[in-house]
Design goal:
Helices cover 39% and strands 10% of the residues. The protein is α/β, with parallel strands linked by helices. Strand 1, helix 1 and strand 2 form a beta-alpha-beta unit. Strands 2-1-3-4 form a four-stranded parallel beta sheet, sandwiched between helices. 37% of the residues are buried. Helix 1 runs parallel beside helix 7 and helix 2 runs parallel beside helix 3. The protein has one domain.
């Protein structure tokens, strides 16, 4: 009789080439943000089925609810990983994406994200400022309506749905503009000035997941 095999350990292999990170993203918006991050995933080919995937779910709620949903989804995946003894079912990173708007729960959402290991990204006045920075400079304070009007001028017939030809490849240009607008807005769980966004942090993470990497 052959010896019994020990049950698999719930941990990732320790080879020099690590599996690409599995990333969970929960968006406040249910259309534009979800379309954008799906487009980024496709652009960087960040969802090879044999090494993990990046999930995007829309959640049209206030910031605190978005953070709570991110925690719930992450914890459920961890439970599934333990029950099935498959570490690859768990998420390596959990992100939440919200706007400033007039949400009363934003400060509480920041505290909850920080306490629970969620990377909360905040755009001010709205997520569309990140999209606009793919096209042009913009340093002056804006309202959400201002941003949407400027973006519509760049994207004819824009109604929150992004065209297939959206310039995802210009994300580095958008990142430079974002850092020029608010040089301090370079970490998650932070509310920046108007205008500002730190969405580029997640775009960078998705890019690295798509390209993989070698760790020493």
């Amino acid at each position: 009789m052959s010896p019994r095999r020990s049950p698999p350990r719930l941990e990732r292999p320790s080879a020099r080439r690590y599996p690409k990170k599995r990333i969970l993203v929960i968006c406040e918006g249910v259309v534009t943000e979800v379309q954008y991050f799906n487009g980024v995933k496709d652009h960087f080919k960040a969802v090879p089925v044999d090494v993990g995937r990046c999930d995007v779910d829309g959640c049209g709620k206030d910031p605190l609810s978005v953070v709570k949903e991110a925690i719930r989804r992450r914890d459920k995946a961890r439970g599934d990983a333990r029950r099935q003894r498959d570490a690859f079912l768990a998420y390596d990173e959990t992100w939440a994406v919200v706007d400033v708007d007039d949400h009363a729960s934003l400060s509480e959402a920041i505290r909850a994200a920080h306490a629970n290991g969620v990377k909360l990204l905040i755009s001010r006045p709205c997520f569309e400022i990140w999209l606009l920075w793919h096209f042009q400079d913009c340093l002056a304070a804006l309202t959400t309506r201002d941003v949407q009007r400027k973006l519509a001028a760049r994207l004819p017939n824009y109604d929150k749905h992004l065209p297939a030809a959206f310039p995802y490849h210009d994300h580095l240009r958008a990142e430079r503009r974002a850092q020029l607008a608010d040089p301090d807005h370079v970490t998650p769980n932070r509310k920046g000035r108007n205008p500002s966004t730190n969405v580029w942090l997640l775009v960078t993470g998705i890019a690295q997941s798509g390209k993989g990497g070698i760790r020493q």
